[in-house]
Amino acid sequence: MDEMKDIDNIIALLDGKCEAGVSRIKVNVSEEQEAESVTEQYHRGRCDVGSPWATGKVRNFDQIDGECG
User: Fold this and answer.
1) pLDDT tens for residues 41-63?
2) pTM score, two decimals?
3) Are 52 and 64 in contact (CB under 8 A)?
4) Virtual CA dihedral for 50, 56, 62, 64, nearest 10 degrees?
5) Centroid of chain to Cα 51
6) Which of 6, 16, 47, 63 could lock onto 53 through a cystine, CB 3.0 to 4.6 A?
7) What is the pLDDT of residue 60?
8) Higher confidence at residue 66 or residue 33?
9) How far apart are the C-alpha atoms of 10 and 20, rounded to whole Å?
10) CA 50 from chain center: how many Å?
11) DSSP sequence for 3-67
């Protein structure tokens, strides 16, 4: 695929998300992911996807290094 077509595809993907009402988009590029593939992760709330708070592993801020029951 040529570089301009890649850029056009990315713009179309982002435009589609905005038109669908997505208000926050985080884009990561990985050499490990299969070429021309997209992985999406949806998250409700304002904490970072994958953070201890988002995964439900932390109930209190002082428990980050400990186990939560």
Assistant:
1) 776 666 666 777 667 777 665 65
2) 0.53
3) yes
4) -40
5) 12
6) 47
7) 66
8) 33
9) 15
10) 9
11) HHHHHHHHHHHHHHHHHTT---------SSSPTT--------SSSPTTSTTTTT--SSGGGSSS-
State how far the Cα of 36 lies from the Cα of 39, in Å rounded to an integer.
10
CA distance 49 to 38: 17
One-letter amino acid of 24: R
Q: Which residue would you say has higher pLDDT here, 29 or 67?
A: 29
| Alpha-carbon dihedral angle through residues 29, 53, 58, 69, given to the nearest 10 degrees | -90
- Exposure of 17 by Cβ count < 10 A (0-12 exposed, 13-18 middle, 19+ buried)? middle
Tokens of 59: 């109930």
**pLDDT at residue 68, as a whole number:** 45
